[in-house]
Amino acid sequence: MNKIELEILGKENVFNLIGAEWMLVTAGNKEKFNTMTASWGGLGWLWNKPVAFVFIRPERYTHEFIEQENRLTLSFYAPEYRKAMQLCGTKSGRDTDKVAATGLTPHILETGAITFAEARLTLDCRKLFKTSMQATEFIDKTILEKWYTDKPGGMLHDVYVVEIEQVYQ
Length: 169
Ligand SMILES: Cc1cc2nc3c(=O)[nH]c(=O)nc-3n(C[C@H](O)[C@H](O)[C@H](O)COP(=O)(O)O)c2cc1C
Hints:
The chain is of the alpha+beta class. Helices cover 20% and strands 37% of the residues. The protein has one domain: Electron Transport, Fmn-binding Protein, Chain A (Pnp Oxidase, Chain A, Roll).
């Protein structure tokens, strides 16, 4: 895995990268980490820094790791890994060993953050900001009704803004 210039992101179609290709959000350390699939989020600029925005429901096991650590990685994969990503997005690390189930190979970055050797692109990110969505803040209430219920898996997202510090290919 090689460190590359941030500018490579300008060559990616970042709109499709997250929404269509999906990504793995991984947090933790070499002793214990967890990963999950995400297709909501964005890449851009804030506070003159290159950033990513991710939306993580508090009930996700990965959320615990994101809360504990300073860093997380976002990683992107070729189409052949779609099944692995499907698994990471439908099973919880609470009861499934996702590394064993997908065959992905954990890879520890310089910072101690975790990604997978199979990733075609990894962003090593540092947490800058977190906020929790509030029901009262929804201007279009139909979104609240559609996406947020009192059923398991329906909690309001936590929003994390993370700085993209290193990019690997
Ligand atoms: C395509 C896809 C996209 C997803 N995007 C998100 C997301 O952006 N935010 C989120 O909280 N959950 C998202 N999920 C759901 C989590 O990946 C899923 O609940 C996962 O099982 C959580 O695993 P964990 O409990 O091990 O953290 C997505 C699932 C799929 C299949």
